[in-house]
Design a protein that fits this description.
Blueprint (H helix, E strand, L loop, with lengths): L2 H17 L2 H7 L1 H39 L8 E12 L3 E2 L3 E3 L2 E23 L4 H4 L5 E3 L3 E9 L2 E24 L1
Antiparallel strand pairs: 1-7, 2-7, 3-7, 4-5, 4-6, 4-7
Length: 179
């Protein structure tokens, strides 16, 4: 082995060990590190955005093609049927009602002061929120009106509304298919 090669390897190893430490290099070159990180983020976002635009254009092309062909099948009509309605200014429970299962819609409204709280529960017949606990279908803390879609199994239920500092109303509807 050549003495020069050995000398060069030892010199290179000692030089790199003493003069090149990644931690100190990063501290001394903060601006370069920040620019590299920003470049990686920008390039990554452009690649992701490009993939997103391509997938959106594919979906919109498929939608255009699917709407251009006429459908000859008759689809069953869907009617929302009111199951129960309940308004409350304090904690209140409804009478027992039956759900056929499938898809339901809970239309609700709440109004009140600064500290309004309204929780709307759909509880199975033999259970109690006070004893068994549970999560509300809707939690409202500002004056509002909206709806939420839910899916409950077939069975007997009741509405339980807990209200503080306001009024709260709920109407439960279920979809019925007419064939």
């Amino acid at each position: 082995m050549d003495v020069h090669k050995v000398y060069f390897k030892v010199f290179y190893y000692n030089y790199m060990k003493e003069n090149f430490n990644l931690k100190t290099w990063g501290e001394n070159h903060k601006v370069i590190v920040i620019i590299l990180i920003l470049a990686i983020v920008v390039i990554g976002s452009k690649v992701i955005n490009k993939d997103y635009r391509q997938s959106v254009s594919i979906v919109s092309t498929e939608e255009k093609n699917s709407t251009s062909t006429p459908k000859t099948e008759l689809l069953p009509t869907q009617d929302w049927v009111k199951i129960i309605s309940l308004d409350a200014e304090a904690n209140k429970q409804s009478e027992i009602f039956h759900l056929a299962g499938g898809e339901q819609k809970l239309v609700y409204k709440a109004s009140g002061g600064k500290y309004l709280l309204c929780y709307i529960y759909i509880v199975p017949k033999n259970q109690s929120i006070d004893l068994n606990g549970g999560f509300p279908e809707v939690k409202i803390d500002v004056t509002s009106a909206s709806e939420v879609f839910i899916k409950k199994n077939s069975g007997d239920y009741y509405l339980d509304i807990k209200v503080v500092n306001g009024t709260c109303g709920a109407e439960l509807q279920e979809i019925r298919h007419d064939k």
